[in-house]
Amino acid sequence: xxxxxxxxxxxxxxxxxxxxxxxxxxxxxxxxxxxxxxxxxxxxxxxxxxxxxxxxxxxxxxxxxxxxxxxxxxxxxxxxxxxxxxxxxxxxxxxxxxxxxxxxxxxxxxxxxxxxxxxx
Length: 120
Ligand code: SF4
Fold this sequence. Notes:
- This protein has 120 residues and is α+β, with helices and mostly antiparallel strands.
- It has two helices and ten strands; from the N terminus they run E-E-E-H-E-E-E-E-H-E-E-E.
- The protein has two domains: 2-47, N-terminal domain of TfIIb (Single Sheet), CATH 2.20.25; 54-115, CPE0013-like (CPE0013-like fold), CATH 3.10.530.10.
- It has a five-stranded mixed sheet.
- The radius of gyration is 18 Å and the shape is elongated.
- Iron/sulfur cluster (SF4) binds next to helix 1.
């Protein structure tokens, strides 16, 4: 069964509009991409959509009560709510270093949650 889907490639600021043809759930053609990364993005978006997760965590003993965090690599879209709950339960002690791993392998995704800034 053939299906047409449209995506915006978010791999760079150009934001190419992608027209994706699927046959039985598999990507068979991509148009609208300016470079090969667009086709790769479309395939990932169909088979394993991922997003960078960003939020804040509570901090004890720091200059600020919260610290911004993000996933070190894009996390499975289907797991983002579960990741948000895990992050909401976290309370980190200052000092924190930018890039410090705050949750390793969050929710079994093989993705680490890291600090986005230093916090003393
Ligand atoms: S297809 Fe290539 S040029 Fe277009 S948005 Fe994606 S990465 Fe950028």
